[in-house]
Specification:
It is built from 10 helices and 5 strands; from the N terminus they run H-H-H-H-H-H-H-H-E-H-E-E-H-E-E. The protein is of the alpha+beta class. Helix 9 (about 295-315) links the parallel strand 1 and strand 2 (about 320-325).
């Protein structure tokens, strides 16, 4: 199976063709850095400089795809050029091969090339000058530095800046990705929060409406029907008011409106009175003292949902709501008579317990619900240091 040869870059093709044509033009004009009479010229044929020129130009096609191979072949071509009358274009093309080997080669090649060419520059000038005691040999080191070290150092600088720019681009992409992840998480958290708020605001009122409308339809008693209709109307009005407040918060133009009041533990008495109007025998035992707003909101919503569940599921009997501060936590308990095996008085989504558990977890608290003998107990422990909104 034949190996696929990488296709040269179009800019490399331009360099190769331009260098070859320029070298041929200078050869045709008779422009050479050395004359045939020079003792270092061993290959005196007039067309001899065209051979290393053609090879070096061909190596330019490999400057991006195979930079090390191109440099090795180009070095051999440059050595061949030194025994001919030579071509300036061959030297220029070779300097580009050194530059490309550092810029496009592997990391190891990029690190070593400046050191190797630097050592060759020093040895090529200082060592012959010291041995021959002729300072003119320093010009050899200068020539090596111009042909090898300067393009290698330039390639290293350009590569370093390119790598820094690429690292900055990757960091920017990672930052944008993290920002998008954070935004998605924030949207998900906000949607979950609004879902809990909507459920807690509407579920209780709709459950009461469903239960009392069922009672009004099943009993042929004008007085009972009138009382049920009064409860239905009261819950409908309160539910609509709560919905309007929530919609006002969600509207884009709600910034110029009065902010909706956040429920606190001070509103538990009114909440209990509403539950009593819906037919529950609720007994409230709440201690005194201020709690952080997130804790107060979570406790209020948990009690609200617990009373809604008691309205739908509990048996006849008193429902106890107890709030007690102890050891830096707020202990919330709602205990109602347990009724097993019966269908609920009103349909539900099953999200109530999950919402209460989420509220407790957001504040680092604990939540549990389940039967305790003949009673159903909802137990929540909320740290008073909780600062995240529930």
């Amino acid at each position: 199976m034949a190996l696929a040869v990488p296709r040269p870059h179009r800019d490399d093709v331009r360099i190769a063709v331009g260098g070859l044509l320029g070298g041929v033009l200078l050869w045709a004009l008779g422009t050479h850095p050395r004359v045939p009479a020079d003792p270092l010229v061993l290959w005196r044929a007039s067309w001899a400089p065209l051979v290393p020129l053609a090879v070096t130009a061909a190596c330019a096609l490999l400057r991006r795809t195979l930079p090390r191979t191109g440099l090795l072949i180009g070095t051999a071509a440059l050595a061949l050029d030194t025994v001919t009358t030579g071509s300036v274009v061959t030297l220029v093309l070779y300097t580009d091969l050194v530059y490309a080997a550092v810029l496009y080669g592997g990391p190891a090649t990029a690190r070593r090339m400046p050191w190797v060419t630097g050592m060759l520059t020093v040895l090529g000038g200082v060592l012959p000058a010291a041995v021959g005691r002729d300072p003119r040999w320093l010009l050899v080191g200068v020539a090596v530095g111009v042909v090898a070290f300067a393009p290698a150092a330039t390639g290293w600088v350009v590569r370093d800046h390119r790598d820094a720019a690429e690292a900055a681009r990757l960091r920017a992409e990672q930052t944008a990705l993290l920002a998008e992840v954070d935004r998605a998480q924030a949207v998900t958290a906000e949607r979950a929060r609004m879902a809990r708020e909507l459920h807690d605001l509407v579920a209780g009122h709709l459950s009461a409406i469903a239960i009392h409308s069922t009672a009004a339809l099943s009993l042929d008693d004008p007085k009972t029907s009138k009382e049920a209709l009064a409860v239905i109307r009261e819950n409908s009005v309160e539910g609509l008011a709560e919905m309007r407040r929530l919609i006002g918060v969600l509207r884009a133009g709600s910034a110029d409106r009065e902010p909706a009041a956040v429920p606190t533990l001070a509103g538990l008495a009114a909440l209990v009175e509403g539950a009593r109007a819906n037919g529950l025998d609720v007994r409230l035992h709440a201690g005194q003292g201020e709690v952080p707003a997130p804790v107060g909101l979570a406790a209020y919503r948990i009690v609200q949902e617990s009373l809604t569940n008691a309205l739908k599921h509990a048996a006849k009997g008193p429902v106890e709501v107890r709030l007690h501060r102890r050891d830096g936590v707020l202990d919330v308990r709602v205990i109602s008579p347990y009724r097993s095996g019966d269908t609920p008085r009103a349909p539900g989504s099953g999200a109530g317990l999950a919402g209460m558990r989420e509220r407790a977890a957001l504040l680092g608290g604990e939540f549990a619900a389940g039967p305790e003998g003949a009673r159903w107990a909802v137990r929540t422990v909320l740290p008073l240091t909780g600062g995240d909104s529930a």
